[in-house]
Amino acid sequence: GMKSEHKRAKDAQQQCSDRYEQIPTPYDVVMLGMGPDGHFASLFPDSDPIQQALDSHGGKSCIAINATGCKIAGEYTERISMTLSAFLNSRHIILLFTGEEKLAIFEKAKQINDSSQLPICALIHQNKVPVDLFWAP
Fold first, then answer.
1. What is the three-class DSSP state of 91?
2. Model pTM?
3. Whose CA is closest to 45, among 134, 112, 135?
4. How many CB atoms lie within 10 A of CB 46?
5. Which of 35, 49, 76, 81 counts the highest number of beta carbons within 10 A?
6. DSSP string computed for 38-82
7. Domains of the chain
8. In this structure, what DSSP letter does residue 34 have?
9. What's the alpha-carbon Rg for the chain, to the nearest Å?
């Protein structure tokens, strides 16, 4: 998986991608959550390289994310995530979140379709894989 002996996420990126690319695809189902800033799977607004991570035609399964300056990321700003193109290599996606605040962000994302502001837009506005929403107050 994503565990590695590397000290930096960027150094572990290739190993992680190589491991994930051994998993047979398409995945049956991918389950994701959403944060109050519209991020999912550590793909934060203003993180680096967010546009590469959200490229639906990208080649890699995993990507190193630098979330320095992203308040929601907290003190752990170096992360590894799967890319949007990897998530879209599935039969079905489930998006699960709770609370009125996140519901308002989701509704905004449906309207604006700006993944640089709300990364979740890239997921909910694609038409390759069905996305089912599960929300609870």
1. coil
2. 0.94
3. 112
4. 16
5. 81
6. S-BTTB-TT-BTHHHHT-TT-S-SEEEEE-TT-GGGTT--EEEEE
7. 9-136 (3.40.50.1360)
8. -
9. 14
Distant-in-sequence, close-in-space partners of 91: CB < 8 Å, separation ≥ 6: 26, 27, 28, 29, 129
H or E element at residue 33: strand 30-33
What is the tens place of the pLDDT at every residue in 53-75? 999 998 899 999 999 999 999 99
Closest CA to 104 of 45, 39, 36, 40: 36
5 vs 135: CA distance, rounded Å: 36
Pick the closest to residue 38 from 108, 130, 131 (CA basis): 108
Residue range 73-111, pLDDT digits in tens: 999 999 999 999 999 999 999 999 999 999 999 999 999
